[in-house]
Amino acid sequence: MEPPRFLIITGLLSERACAEGEGLVPICSGADTEGLRAALERTQGFALAGVVSFGIAGGLDPALRPGDVVIGSSVVAEDKRYETSAELSSILSEGLGASGGKIVAGVIAGVEAPVLDPQGKAALRKKTGAAVVDMETHIAADFAERRRLPLAVVRVVNDPAARALPPLATSAVTPDGGVDFRAVFRDLAREPRQIGDLILAGLDFRKSSATLGRCGRLLGPLLSLGLSEL
């Protein structure tokens, strides 16, 4: 019988590539929340040790910058709150913190559609008190609760609270989690004023991706340590 593995839930192929290793089962949503829910239901045959939401996120806390790491203390979505595993969160926080960079604990907000502008981020921050927002963590949390599995969240700040994402961000992700460059160029041709925000978004993504890669290399070894704590 295979030992239990950790289910790693991501939104993009680039995030999934950072989280592949022994003991990990990565799933990529491709920014499709319903598709992710369906994919999770197909994991019934796996012996799972826990669930980890892993990837980039939008900043809600103005103090956070691109590349900062948020270890989820809890997850909020609509009127629901989910708690994370204190044991796994502690191991991940200490282990990732030892590799350098800013590591903080914070609430993760889950949404069904991207929050693109600073006004929307500020409103969500006021409503939830969350540090960051993404489209996968609340689905991961619901799945973990229903399966009675421990949950951990590792999210790297991509766009800070004061930064707007260009509208084309909503159509740039392919169903498998890649980037639809044809859609990007088509939207830029239609609305060239997005180019400034796109350049800033690209610079932010370089920072968050570098941090995510460093965290991903440590994810498997740290979670294997957590098995003895669960």
From TrEMBL:
Gene Ontology BP annotations: L-methionine salvage from S-adenosylmethionine; nucleoside metabolic process
InterPro entries: Hopanoid-assoc_phosphoryl_HpnG, Nucleoside_phosphorylase_d, Nucleoside_phosphorylase_sf
GO cellular component, one term: cytosol
Pfam families according to UniProt: PNP_UDP_1
Nucleoside phosphorylase domain location: 36-163
GO molecular function: adenosylhomocysteine nucleosidase activity; methylthioadenosine nucleosidase activity
NCBIfam families, sorted: HpnG (TIGR03468), PRK07077.1 (NF005476)
Protein name, entry field: Phosphorylase
Organism of provenance: Methylosinus sporium
